[in-house]
Amino acid sequence: MSAFAELEQVHEAALADLKTALTTQALDAWEDRYLGRKGEITLQARQVGQMAREDRPAFGRRVNEIKQLLEQAHASRLEVLRHSELTERLEAEAIDVTLPGRPVVRGHLHLTTQTLRELYDIFAKMGFEVYEAPDVELEAYNFDLLNIPQYHPARDMWDTFWVEGGDQQRGNRRLLRTHTSPGQIRAMRERYPEPLRVILPGKCYRYEQITVRSEHQFYQVEGLAVGPRITMTDLIGTMTEFSHLFYGRDRRVRVRSSYFPFTEPSVELDTECILCDGEGCAVCKYTGWLEIAGAGMVHPIVLANGGYDPDVWSGFAFGAGVERPAMQKFGVEDIRLFYGNDLRFLRQF
Ligand code: DAH
Q1: What gap in Å lies between CA 71 and CA 14, rounded to an integer?
Q2: How far, in Å, CA of 249 to CA of 208, rounded?
Q3: Does domain 111-346 match CATH 3.90.1170.20?
Q4: How close is the Cα of 181 to the center of ligand 1, in Å?
């Protein structure tokens, strides 16, 4: 077969093949096969050198012609394929804007936060402002300045998580506060010589066994009022009002004597059980009463450590739990549920 005939055959084969290229990918392969660097048309062009001199111009011209024709054919085919592929994709990816949307899941405040906010509201009504103190405390604030010296047996009331490193000098050692009471010293030192009425909410930590009734992390709300004529009656009145607003009206409050190193005298305050109305049930351990706070008149040593002269000033303080009252109010029987992150529990509140 002559070189010319062979060239025409390649041309025809290329055109026939082009019709079978149904995707842009197949079209790319076709371009490689015929027009690429090692493509069949390119190979044809290279043959020119081996031809009889007189045939060369005509052959060269024809190769170029065919090359151009094939390039045009390729371009228009590409156009068509791109268009149809785009249409196909748009159809496949079409969004039905009339479909109903998926609901956005919204979170809500944790039971502890809800309870804390309720306590803030109640005490705000009685003129208490919120004062925040640090979770990582100095030994001096958590113990010594609250009249709990190092080898005092009362330290056993609070099993402590100590923080490693830093200044290990006595008093400067760091710990996770075991109660919110150290904030009393901070608030007094900052506010002296103003009278003050603050609540100090916060997380407390105790190196303790976790049980159904006690966690090693929990919240407290501390209260502190310091002024020139504050008496035990103010404390009892404040806590009675608190009990009425939090647990409900018509509930009696009872005062029992107790001991805390930072108050003198010290008391514990109970309210009539909200579940059994004082009859006795599992929640109140058949006593008819629920403990609401430890409290007392601020010890003169503590007042003095805060900068207030105990001959001029007096004050009351109290420390109330947060999870326990929430448990009583909502009938939660296991404190571990609060921080177990089980949404089935948390969503109920
Ligand atoms: N800090 C005490 C505790 O964690 C609670 C307490 C008792 C706080 C009496 C007070 C108070 O302010 O006056 O057990």
Answers
A1: 11
A2: 35
A3: no
A4: 6
Our mutation pick for probing the ligand 1 site, out of 260, 301, 305, 316, counting the most ligand atoms within 8 A of Cβ, is: 260
Q: Residue 248 and residue 292: Cα distance in Å, rounded?
A: 13
Q: Where do the H-state alpha helices sit in the chain?
A: 3-20, 24-35, 40-46, 56-92, 111-125, 139-142, 182-191, 232-247, 300-305, 323-330, 343-346
Whole-number pLDDT of residue 280: 86
Both structure tokens of 267: 């008391």
| Ligand 1 atom closest to residue 178's alpha carbon, by position in its atom list | 4
Residues of the chain below pLDDT 70: none
- In angstroms, the Cα distances linking 223 to 200, 260, 320, 327 are 6, 15, 8, 21
Region label for 96, one of left (φ > 0), alpha (ψ between -120 and 50) or beta (otherwise) = beta
Residue 80: strand, helix, or coil: helix
Integer-rounded Cα radius of gyration of the chain:
43
Residues touching ligand 1 (Cβ under 6 Å) are 179, 181, 222, 260, 263, 294-296, 317-319
Residue nearest to atom 5 of ligand 1 (CA): 319
Indicate which atom in ligand 1 lies nearest the CA of residue 179: 4
Q: What is the pLDDT of residue 329?
A: 86
